[in-house]
Amino acid sequence: MSENTIKYHEKSNTYIAGKKTFFEEDVNIDGNFIVGAGSNFWKDLNVKGSLELGKGTFVKGNIIADKIIIGSKSDINGNVEASGELRILDSVEINGSAIAEKEMLVRPGCKIKFAKANSTMELVGKVSIKEIESGTKVIVRSE
Fold this sequence. Notes:
The chain is mainly beta.
């Protein structure tokens, strides 16, 4: 990763990575992070703030952040942990667990191995989740 792949907006404490950015090492961000579409992370992604992953992003490792939005058609090989809200948009595949300390929204076409939300989990449309933590309040609605 070179220095010019990430830009910084000081007023909002937000780091911005452009489209199709490629990261070979662990990425640790102390602030908010917006990732462009088609980006690749070969290891873990840790953000102390909110994280917005663009459409078609690939993450080989784990994701940890306060608030997470995962763009449609993204592929996550590891686990996703949000200390706040977690939003998983259309056709995202998470091969590990998806855990939210607050609310979780899962859009149509998503495939998740394990899911847990401490507040509520809202499933929209046809969603494939192999296992949901017992005691999780689940709301299911059509598109």
